[in-house]
Specification:
The protein is an alpha/beta fold. It is 37% helix and 14% strand. The chain contains eleven helices and nine strands. The chain has helices spanning 3-11, 31-45, 72-84, 105-114, 129-136, 152-166, 184-195, 224-227, 252-259, 289-292, 299-318, and strands at residues 62-67, 88-93, 119-124, 140-146, 173-177, 199-203, 219-221, 233-236, 274-276. The chain has a five-stranded parallel β-sheet with strand order 7-6-5-8-9, with helices on one face. It is globular, with a radius of gyration of 20 Å.
């Protein structure tokens, strides 16, 4: 594969001009911008099928994975995405950074910018941390999950997977099941799905799926068995024990009985309904193992597509940022 064809992968993205240096959330993106990212990811997905899985699109650029909150999956995906774009990568965690010595997040990030970092991928336990950094830095800031706010690249890779399998998102009935209240994945999915024309139903205990979410243009249900037969996509969320108090959660056994996607309950699904999960999976809680590994599951497709989506996001934002 020659250099010219490598450049063609990046050049084959749509003609719409991307103007954002940061990706902070899907709430602020238009439907056209979301589709633009997904179309760009199409061009990069083919890189993974090559013998040499690299393009020079970000050669000479430096990405800093700045993970104040741990996440092996997301960090690894961003790292591999950057490597495939030929960028240099530095990984920093809270325990190995000066934050552990009392330095502020802003000062740490500005020091990284002074070292000419082109992109900072930030995961933080506090909602709004990526927005705060983006306001103070010329460097591109990518939100890799902030508190219970948003996880935009997870939302984008879920949208990409749904579109890839169904041809479009508009008109589909997408059911999101589980801990909506504390889930940043749920919020990013809701914003993206509604903007692309899907019908969204949220299902779970009333403590974790409050009526307040109806303001976002979705339907609320506390009866999973009633909703499953009309679903085109079922997205199961992990219970966020680390972000909730005990009174929010009814107990594992009761949750499985009322809201778990068991093998028996899955018989209500249409044969072509997609089963999704952002991971890590609690087998036997959100979903039975035979379903997670079954024909309707696209969980591993989500992982593969996440790499292409994150390549697209890094490529687009790096093209706008001017540190």
């Amino acid at each position: 594969m020659n250099k010219q064809s490598d450049h063609n992968v990046a050049a084959s993205r749509p003609a719409l001009h991307w103007t954002r240096k940061d990706l902070l959330g899907l709430r602020e993106l238009s439907a056209e911008e979301i589709s633009f990212v997904l179309d760009t990811a199409d061009a990069f997905k083919q890189v993974g099928t090559r013998e040499i899985k690299k393009v020079p699109a970000l050669r000479g650029k430096t990405l800093v994975n700045f993970f104040i909150e741990p996440s092996t999956r997301t960090r690894t995906s961003f790292e591999l995405a950057a490597f495939r774009l030929s960028a240099d990568v530095i990984n920093i965690s809270a325990t190995t950074s000066s934050l552990a010595k009392g330095e502020t997040l802003k000062d740490t990030a500005r020091n990284l910018e002074a070292l000419h970092a082109d992109l900072i991928v930030l995961r933080h336990s506090s909602a709004g941390a990526p927005q705060f950094l983006a306001q103070h830095l010329q460097t591109s800031v990518i939100n890799a999950g902030d508190g219970a706010h948003e996880h935009p690249t997870q939302g984008l890779l879920d949208l990409y997977t749904i579109r890839e399998k169904n041809g479009a998102v508009a008109g589909l009935h997408v059911v999101i099941i589980g801990d909506i209240l504390f889930s940043r994945v749920a919020r990013s999915n809701i914003f993206g799905l509604v903007k692309l024309g899907a019908r969204v139903t949220l299902v779970g205990p009333s403590t974790l799926v409050p009526r307040e979410f109806e303001k976002l243009g979705v339907t609320i249900s506390h009866d999973i068995d009633e909703v499953l037969p009309t679903a085109d996509v079922v997205n199961l969320l992990r219970i966020q024990h680390e972000r909730q108090r005990k009174e929010y959660f009814p107990g594992i056994g009761e949750y499985v009985r009322l809201f778990g996607l068991t093998s028996a309950r899955a018989k209500r699904l249409k044969p072509d309904c997609l089963i999704m999960h952002p991971g890590p999976i609690n087998r036997g809680v959100e979903i039975d193992s035979d379903l997670a590994d079954g024909m309707q599951s696209v969980i591993l497709d989500q992982v593969t597509n996440g790499l292409a989506v994150r390549m697209a996001v890094l490529y687009l934002c790096a093209g706008v940022a001017t540190p």
